[in-house]
User: What shape does this take?
Amino acid sequence: MRRDVLSIMDFSKEELIALFEETKRIKKELEERTTLNYLRGYVMATAFFEPSTRTKLSFQTAMLRMGGEFIDLPPEEASSRAKGENFADTIKMLESYADVIVIRHKLEGAARFAAEIAEVPVINGGDGTRDHPTQAMIDLFTIFETLGRVEGLTIGVIGDLKYGRAARSFVLGISKFKPKKLYLVSPPQLSLHDDVKEIIIENGVRFEELTDLKQVIADIDVLYVTRIQRERFPDPLEYERVKGSYRVGLDILSGAKSELVILHPLPRVDELDLSLDKTPYAKYFVQAKNGVPVRMALLKTILKG
Ligand code: NCD
Assistant: This one.
């Protein structure tokens, strides 16, 4: 049966755990340098209407490492979009060439719309401020792999919880695993939308909103840091008011647990100090690297069942 990946909400906890187990198996095979041919003969189309480094390249690497291939929609000026071709026609072309489409777009709902047009599965690689399901899968897998469990942890999420689709998707994803407590740390103007808070409450998760990480750092098992999403601000003055308003550095971590795990979906700007990279807390490059095996497992599940 065809399966789209539009939101982390479309996946149950059990399905996510099955994906993590598959990812572990694939990682082991990759470490043994086994040639994987699970997706030989399959073609994936990447259609990125917004900038990307990790998501696009790790999806393409995932396909190549599974024996499959990919095609990539060229940037606007080099494709027929420059001639005025509409979004729906572009998607129709991609579905006639490829077995799966990965799409990123600045508009919320773009991936869902593409899924209505295309017969082949559509994977959301980020739509505006809304969803980034595969990033959340990578985040949760990295916790699973590092700590051996995802359930029952005390989680801190710091940053732009209003415009950040990675933060939003992570909060929705982790809420399925009954965190002991969720600390939502942000400037008041960048707090989490009510619709997400309602879902957290429905899941029975205890959460607290605050502006100062230092107050709660000693309690936290996993700290998820995100950048301020400058490009999403409708008013540049609104951005000027909050820019540089938080920064995670060694000073803030003085009372932290020794096994604290720091994650960041990347790219970082100035919110996560470079001096943390060498500490045992830093798991964000491991997290980025996990993008490939998690997406391999996902593509295999979607295309092969
Ligand atoms: C995130 C995104 O695009 O939403 N990046 C990513 O996919 N790793 C986070 C961000 O841009 O801040």
In short: The chain is about 35% helix and 15% strand. Residues 89 and 117 are 9 Å apart (CA to CA). Residues 54-55, 126, 132, 135, 165-166, 226-227, 265-267 surround N-carbamoyl-L-aspartate (CB under 6 Å).
